[in-house]
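Our preliminary data section would be incomplete without showing what the modeling component actually yields. Below, a chain of 82 amino acids is followed by its predicted structure, encoded as C-alpha cells that our downstream tools consume directly.
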Amino acid sequence: MHPPLTLHRHPMCAEIIEEFQKCHLDHPVKKFFGECTDLKIKLDRCFRQEKALKRKANFEESKKFKEQLQAYKREIAEKNEE
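Predicted structure:
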C-alpha cells in the first residue's frame, strides 16, 4: 500500500508516479498480473527515501528545539537563584 499519488506532495518521486499511473492506464488488466510491478518497486523505494529525508529533518528540528528549551530552563533557573 502506498500513500495517495499526488505530485505536489511527492516532488522527489514525481517522474516515477507519472510512469506508474501511465502504466496502469495503458494496461488496465495486465496491471493485476504484474505488468507494473517494477515501477511499483521503484515507487516504494522512492517513498522510503523521501520519508527518511523527512525523518532526518524532523529529528534535526527537534534537537534544535530541545536545545532552546534547555537554554530557556537554565535562564529561568538562574533568574530564580538571584
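The mean pLDDT is 91. The chain has one domain: 11-81. Preliminary results of this kind motivate Aim 1 of the renewal.
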